[in-house]
Amino acid sequence: KLTSLALQPVITPELVQGRVHLKCTYSCPSSKPPLQYVVTWSRLSTPGKKEQIQRDTTPQSFSYIEMNGVTLGLGDTVFCTVTAFTRDAPEQQSLPEESKGFYAGIKFLPESLQIAEDGREHVLTILSTVPIACPGHDNSCKITLQLSAEDLGKNSQLLGPPNIALSACQVDLLQAPCSESSCAEAALTVTAVTDFAQDGNRISRIRAEPVGRRDLLWRAYTPKDVKVTVRDLPTGNCYSFTDPHIITFDGWRYDNYKIGTFLLCRSVSRAFEVHVRQWDCGGHRSATACNCGVAAQ
C-alpha cells in the first residue's frame, strides 16, 4: 500500500524569523497508524550530480532548510525527496518522490538576448526567487544590484567598450510577497549601440553584482551573466566635405557653393538633426564656400 502515494513534494521560499528558508511541502494521505516522512534535502554540486545536505524525519506535512550561505547558498539548485513509512513498520517505505529543482538566487528573463543595431529597446527583467530579508533598519529591505556591460568579441575575450547600452546602472530589488517564483522584481532596457562600423556580429555580457549588503548570504554571491548577441546591420552615411561636395544617404552627389547655415540632415523618426555653416573661401577669383562649422542635436 505504501509503494506510490503521490506525495508530490514542492519547494517554496519563506522568511522565518527574518532569515531565508526553503520549505518542502507534500500531500499527506490519511493512514492508520499515521505516517512518518523522511525528507532528504540535496543540491546540485556539479551538473548531473547531487549532494545531500540535510535529512529530517517528521510526522508533519512539511520540512524547512535554512539558506545560511555555507551549506546552502544563493546560486544553488535545491531538491527535496520524500519517503513515507509507518512507525510500527519502518522498513516498509514508499517509493521516494523528488521535487522539481528550485533555483535559489537572481534570475534574468530572458536568460540571453539576440538583438540588432536597429535602435530598438529590449526589456530585461531581473527577479529574486528568494525573499529579501531586512537585516537592519530603515531602507535595508532591498538588494541593490550594480550593473555593467562588457564586449566579449568573437572569441569571448574582453575587447573594451560594450556593444550595448543599459537604461540603468543600478536597480533595486525591493521586498515583496513571493508569487509565481518571484519574491522581488525590477526591469531595465537593453539597446544595441549603432556604431556605424561593419564589425560583424558581436557578443556582450551584462554583469550584476549585489552591493552594500553585510549578510553572508548576499555578500558572497554574484549572479550568472547575461549573454547578449548583437547582430550587425549596415548603417547609412552622408557626407559634406571641402568646398562642399555632398553625398546623400542614398548616394546622390551634388555641390553647394552657397554661403550660410544649412540643414544637412534631419531624422523623421526622432529628435535628431545636423546643421552646417559655410563661409566664403574662394576669394575674388571664384564663388566657393567651405564648411567652417557644424552643430548636431
From TrEMBL:
PROSITE patterns: VWFD (PS51233). Residues 236-297 form the VWFD domain. Coiled coil: none annotated. One of its GO terms (cellular component) is cell surface. GO terms for molecular function: signaling receptor binding. It holds the Pfam family Ig_VWDE. Keywords: Disulfide bond, Signal. InterPro entries: Dev_Signal_Modulators, Ig_VWDE, VWF_type-D. This is VWDE protein. It comes from Corythaixoides concolor.
